[in-house]
Amino acid sequence: MSKKKVITIFGTRPEAIKMAPLVKELEKREEIESKVCVTAQHREMLDQVLELFDIKPDFDLNIMKTKQTLTGITNKVLEGLEEVFEQEKPDMILVHGDTTTTFAGSLAAFYQQIKIGHVEAGLRTFNKYFPFPEEMNRKLTGSLADLHFTPTKGSKENLLREGIEEKNIYITGNTVIDAMMHTVEDEYEFKNEYLKKIDFNKKIIMITAHRRENWGQGIENICHALKKIVKDNSDVELVYLVHLNPVVKDVVFKELGGLDRVHLLPPLDTKETHNLMNKSFMVMTDSGGLQEEAPHLGKPVLVLRDVTERPEAVEYGTVKLVGTDIDKIVNEASELIKNVEAYNRMSKAANPYGDGVASIRIADAILKYFNLSKKEVDEFKR
């Protein structure tokens, strides 16, 4: 039996976190020759994840540069992968989610008629500019893909409405839950000296906010709301992981720098981030990944966006959309801080995103697609 060559492609830290457990699973499969190509759309943060999961890429396009544009990223990924594909001639590539690496990687594979598997497929807001450019990245990738690995039933239904054949869609759960099985430790001790000094017996709110749609007034509003929250609640401390982009960083430090009980830290490595979340009281974020990760840990999430492509957590009650309206952010946060029943309703709601074995399901589906296994894929049900 000849092996099938599968190249897993990713370029950012969120992709790497979610693809790492899948890479490890593919390495176990005798029927698959697994290779990894990173674009390094993000460099330093990507490398942290590769080190954590002990992944050594076979190819590194190393495309990141300062002030890179979407056009520049797309061009470099297309050109770099063209060479990789001509050399390796893979049977399938795997891409994840909705980054520019994901779309460009899929397009490069399509140009050479290579099969495409899309991990975390089917997420939609149905507004092409929210989030930008992610909504169109994932939709265009979905049009190009041959296999679609959706985290939930809802994301599968999105693809069915777009005309994707049901036999090519598998509900797998989200691979980020697989990753968290390896990163979260109840007795974890932080490496970051600043985090070591924080009293986690207090109500620690973990914050991230950096999406393009929030640049400018959105980030300013979020900062004004955070000021009021910490001023009105003496038992609350904020830990804001501030994105390195000056568009975000400059505003955050101007508005929040030097305030008591407000800790502004640079982005942490994956293990530190997951364990900070685990020890926090709640999470406020415009990130997609944290909307999946925090419910797994029983942490309520206030999403600093007006729309989300992850409606399941809203439906289950683990997440609330608050946008960037100052009063709404303050009111919803205060309700969770002061009302134990409201907090418990969110923290104890079921996590709709996975059970820790998504990577096994994806590997099983790939083998079935290539007729290397007759085993039926045990899909995720929630």
Automatic annotation (TrEMBL):
Keyword Ribonucleoprotein part of the UniProt annotation: no
Catalytic EC class: isomerase
Pfam family, one: Epimerase_2
Domain UDP-N-acetylglucosamine 2-epimerase: 24-366
Keywords: Isomerase
Coiled coil: none
A molecular-function term among this protein's GO annotations: UDP-N-acetylglucosamine 2-epimerase activity
EC number: 5.1.3.14
InterPro entries: UDP_GlcNAc_Epimerase_2_dom (IPR003331), WecB-like (IPR029767)
Segment forming the signal sequence: none
Family: Belongs to the UDP-N-acetylglucosamine 2-epimerase family.
PANTHER family reported in the protein's UniProt record: UDP-N-ACETYLGLUCOSAMINE 2-EPIMERASE
NCBIfam families in the cross-refs: wecB (TIGR00236)
Protein known as: UDP-N-acetylglucosamine 2-epimerase (non-hydrolyzing)
Organism: Clostridium uliginosum
